[in-house]
Amino acid sequence: MLRTSAILPETVASVAVAAVAVGAAATLLVKRTKDSEKSEIPVKECEACGGTGICSECKGEGFVLQKLSQERADRARMSSNNAATRFTSGLPRKWSYCTKCSSARSCNTCGGSGKLAL
Questions:
Q1: Is 118 helix (H, G, I), strand (E, B) or coil?
Q2: Which of 30, 56, 58, 102 has its CA at a distance of 20 to 30 angstroms from the CA of residue 16?
Q3: Beta partners for 65?
């Protein structure tokens, strides 16, 4: 019992020192964060992607479907033999890689961040 009571004051002292150190570090971190927020570069939303950071051409998929003209799609639907092919015959079948983002899926203008520096 005598040993336990001799260790107890040292433990209390070390906990108190640790608490003061953590409090000082937290205060310093908050001050640095506030200072860095004030010195941030003003930014605006990217107009090319609308602030999403995703390529507007392929909508982040990396490829685009080859569009059929309305006239060709109607002609294909009319010449189909049954209801299943009548629905799918007007849909695009071919695709190609997105040339705007080179299949990177992100906006080239803002680099995928959605924001531009002023």
A1: coil
A2: 30
A3: 95
